[in-house]
Fold this protein.
Amino acid sequence: MPEARALIHPGPVAQERITAVPCLATHRRVTLKAGSTLLAAMIDATNGAGAWFDLSDLPVKTLTFVRPASAPDKRHVAWYSAETVLEDAVVLQAGAHLGQRDGAAFAHVHGLWSEGNGTRHAGHLLAEATVLVEDHAVDVWVLEGAVLEAMPDAETGFTLFRPAETASMRAPNALLATIRPNMLIDKALACCFDASDLPLKTIKGLGSLVGTQLDGPCSLNDHATEVLLTETTGQDVITVGFDGPPLWGKLTPGANRVCVTFEVLLL
């Protein structure tokens, strides 16, 4: 089995490695409206509440995304590539956390998309710079009692989502959590399940890994890779490194550590 690599971040290592908040998640089928940015459409669909969106076969007029890249300085272990802009593209499969940053709604989106000639790309989609071309129905889980809030993080030097309690729920049915760098992703997810007394079964989430080790012949060795969990078990992923193209498959158990952060909703 490949060795799970770790990275040394520039700041002090935070003592708490997993932050988790129980909440109530309500499933809805909503319509994202044509002509809006993806961010604005998600805000309108949830009245700005924290939420997780499953996006599939979503046509867009303009799609803007970045991939992971080497850091330009020593203040971070990795950074983002230059923006790529596609016209008349389709979001084939993506997941999005809708939370708060600087007092306004903010979305973190990872996934897989296709341009008109069929070329596929993956990475970090910029919801505020992606425009919908037609009305499109999607699945969303709207949260009560918790929201992801973006805050400066001393360990990594990034501004990262962290779950914050907004109200105490008498009957929570979900857990909103973030996982810190160098945690083995499969063991961290197991810890989330074990630490909760809820009958959790399904994982929605995205984040970054130190390389992506997949079962089979294909893996990514870049020290930062963007990842979307694509199945409910947390084992199947879409992933991309510095140069693309995207890969998909099952994570090799015990071989994948979180790079900067991983954000999950357990249902």
Observations:
- The first helix runs from residue 38 to 46.
- The chain has two helices and 17 strands.
